[in-house]
Design goal:
The chain has 128 residues and is α+β, with helices and mostly antiparallel strands. Helix content is 27%, strand content 40%.
């Protein structure tokens, strides 16, 4: 039996680009420095936030998304531990643990989508 190996160069290139954008996005939270967000977020970006439960608030547009992520990135006494970033084409899944200033934590997942080199969609989910 012959096995066929198919390599999709276009998908591999998209995955590489998406991985780089996710690295830069994750750095915002790791370094508490939101200055890179304007160059990562599309004008028509949409966030479905983790709160309020059960569906989360919806943010639409670059300004609203950058404002939310900037506030999260610069929260005093907080940090994100990255558990895994998985990339496939224009999509990424980020697993994380968020440590609040009081020492409590939440585990969560962001489902991200990139288009034309910018983040266009982010959906956040948490375990309580």
């Amino acid at each position: 039996m012959t096995r066929e190996l198919i390599i999709d160069i276009a998908a591999a290139n998209r995955s590489g680009e998406t991985a780089e954008i996710m690295r830069r996005y994750n750095d915002v939270f790791q370094h508490h420095d939101p200055s890179a967000l304007d160059g990562l977020v599309a004008q028509d970006c949409v966030i479905e936030n983790t709160t309020p439960a059960p569906d989360g608030a919806r943010r639409v547009g670059r300004a609203a998304c950058v404002e939310l992520w900037s506030a999260i990135a610069t929260g005093p006494g907080t940090r994100f531990d990255l558990e895994e970033t998985y990339v496939a084409g224009d999509r990424a899944t980020i697993r994380w643990r968020y440590w609040m200033a009081d020492g409590n934590s939440l585990r969560g997942v962001n489902l991200m989508r990139v288009e034309n080199g910018l983040i266009v969609e982010a959906m956040g989910y948490v375990k309580r």
